[in-house]
Amino acid sequence: MKTGVIGLGVMGGAMALNLHKAGLLYQVWNRTTAKAEDIASQTGVSVAESISSLASECEAIIICVSKDEDVLDVVNEIAKGIKPGSTVIDTSTVSSDTAKQAAEIINGQGGQFLDCPVTGGSEGAKNATLSIMVGGEESTLDNVREVLSAIGKKIIHIGPTGSGQACKAVNQVICAGINQAVTEGLAFGDALELNMDKVLEAISAGAAGNWFMDHRGKTMLAGTYAPGFKLKLHLKDLDICLEMADKLPGYDLTLTDVTARDYEKLVEMGHGEEDISTLFRLKKA
Ligand code: NAP
Prior knowledge:
Layout: E1 3-6, H1 10-21, E2 25-29, H2 33-43, E3 46-47, H3 51-57, E4 60-63, H4 68-79, E5 87-90, H5 96-107, E6 112-115, E7 118-119, H6 121-127, E8 130-135, H7 138-149, E9 152-159, H8 163-191, H9 196-204, H10 211-221, H11 231-246, H12 254-268, H13 280-283
Helix pairs in contact: 1-2, 1-6, 3-4, 4-5, 8-10, 8-11, 8-12, 9-10, 11-12
C-alpha cells in the first residue's frame, strides 16, 4: 500500500523510517523541508511538492503534527488532493472533536479517516513498538492494518471516530500522575543523599517500577532533559483532558490540573521544548 507521511518530527520521522523498512513508504512531506530531505536521503523516497500532491499519490496518508489546528490545516490540504477510497491516519494527539471534524472533511471527499493516537514514546516510534488506539470504522482499520503494523506492535480498535483520542486522553492523565510520582520520589531520594543508581536498580524491579522511570530516571538525575516527549506537547494534551472533564458534571481531574499548572511554570521558565521529565527541576530541594 503506497503510504505517505506528513510531519516528520520525533515521532513521524521514526514512523517513516519503519514504513520504509516494511516496503510501504512512498512519499514524505514536512513543513520544514530539511527534515523531509533528510528522510528522503535515508530512504530514497521522494519529497512531495505539497500536502495535496502527496494525498493524490498515496493510498494511506499518515499525519503526525503537533496540535489540533495543525491537524485541521493539514487535513484541509489533504482534502484538495485525496482520491476516493484512500485513508487518512492521524497519529497526532488532539481532541476527539478535532478527530470528528477531520473525519467529516475527509469523508466529504470520499476518503476514510481513522484517529490513531499512539503511546510508547520516542523509543516506541523508533523500535516500531507503539501501542495504537484506533477510532473509526473497523473495516477501514482492516484495510490499513499492514501500515499500522509497520509502526506499532499493539493495535486496538477502541470504537467510533474520536474514541481513539478519548482513550489517549486517559493515557495522558495517567502519564501526568506518573510524572508527578516519579519526579517527586527521585528528587526525595536525591535529597536524602542516597546512591540513586542503586535506588533506581532496586525500585525499578518492584511495585514502583514503570516505563517512565526506566527510560527517564537516569537522565533526569543527571540533569539532562532532551526530548523524548516535549513538555509543551503534554501540556497541550492535559488542557484537552481538562476541557473534556469540564463537560462531565461534577468531575475533577485534580492531579492533571496540578501537573498542567506545574508545566505552565516550566514553560514560563523556558523549558517547554524539553522532555516532560524536566518536571524534576521543580521537585529538587
Ligand atoms: P515534534 O518533534 O515537535 O514534531 C512536530 C511535527 O509537526 C514537525 O514535523 C512539525 O513541522 C509539524 N508541524 C507542526 N505544526 C504544523 C503545521 N501547522 N503544519 C504542518 N506541520 C506542522 O513532535 P512529536 O514529538 O513528533 O509529536 C507529534 C505528535 O505526536 C504530537 O501531537 C504529540 O503530542 C504526539 N505524541 C508524541 C509522543 C512523544 O513521545 N514525542 C508520543 C506520543 C504522541 P516542523 O518540522 O516544520 O516544525
